[in-house]
Amino acid sequence: MTLKGKVFQRSGGAWHCVIAKAVGLDNAQGLHHFISQSPWQAEDLEKRRLKIILAILEEREIMVMIDETGDQKKGKKTDYVKRQYIGNFGKIENGIVSVNAYGYCEGMTFPLKFKIFKPKERLKEGDKYRTKPELGAELVKELKEMGFKIKRVLADSLYGESDSNFVSVVGELGIEYAVAIRSNHGVWLPKGQKAHRLRRGVLGVKTEQAVRANKWRAFQELRWDRKEETRYIREIISGKRRTIQYWQITTDKETVPDDSTWFVMTKIPNLKYKEVGAIYKVRAYVEPGFRNSKNELGWADFRLTNYADIQQWWELVMCAYLMVCLHNITFNPSVASVDDSYQQHSLWDSGKGWKNALNNLQLILQPFISFNLILRWLQVFPVPQLSFGFPRLITKINEFDCLKYLVYCWDEFYLSSA
């Protein structure tokens, strides 16, 4: 029932009050106790969720993206909150930050793991300080140890500029990577070659081993809102071409504007510029979409101060996120097809993306939610047609069960019990 409420939830208001009203509970405090006092552990639920993903993937390779999420929080009572850079606002604010790993396979993004960033000033007894790149590297190692077939890791410049704590760790694991880097990224060349730094604009340097840039190539980038924009890409070669390659991407090849020009470092064998554009498109499209999807499910809408409770809340969001993913037939071949009768709804979304599936699940939940919202009025002013008609409609809607094969066949499927 908690997951059902989360799929329907919109941001705003105390989370337990919003969900309680939606699912027809008289007392919202029980939901708060479900987080703060129940004996279940977030780690256990995470393991079950990841086992489901592994079973669905069936040895398919995935890309793993590492990104941090920052959310504003007032006061100092909440664990690990301090004034720090908050990505959602693009500036320093009082807030809480987590490092997240999410997967990409067959056009579908799905949640994997997260770790809280613990600022030095807010460490508790027994805590050990780890930088965000260190946390990101831990996430990749843990996923690989679990059995995920990670073909490639993508990350932004915070991780791309951390060689010893992130980039080298990923490389030692034998995993390809494509990470953003800063424009002044330093390059160590083999003995006998001179070192240079990447610069925007004209990159030619008159030395024995000059930095050179190939010609610009155009490619189409699919934004998170599904609009296409033209981008330009070229390879930058410092010294002799090596396994690690450097690329410059911009929106305007003539002016190369600072605010819309990026540098990418890759370690992918036999990589061509067209492939770099495709890889970059995935990250540029998926990253904002992943954040927006978590926000749709109330990632930051908790009213909790203890991190153990916050961790449980975030894990429930991850479970709700995955539940939506499971309705995509490309990602989850075991999902049953939707009966034509449901698709006759005038607002039914025929798209194949995550947001399309979420919209349809919200439509499925509407009769249940609506009945709970008007039930108290029906107790004041009885209307037999509504009192009997809504349950009949809900019974019909309850026949919608595209995940029945998943539930019946897998002992590991525990999401419905959450």
From TrEMBL:
Specify the Transposase IS701-like DDE domain's residue ranges: 27-220
Among Pfam families, the record links this protein to: DDE_5
Q: What InterPro entries would the database entry show? A: IS701-like, IS701-like_DDE_dom, RNaseH-like_sf
Q: Which SUPFAM superfamilies match?
A: Ribonuclease H-like
UniProt xrefs under PANTHER family: TRANSPOSASE
Q: Which NCBIfam families match?
A: transpos_IS701
**In its UniProt entry, what is this protein called?**
Transposase
Native organism: Hyella patelloides LEGE 07179
Taxonomic classification: Bacteria, Bacillati, Cyanobacteriota, Cyanophyceae, Pleurocapsales
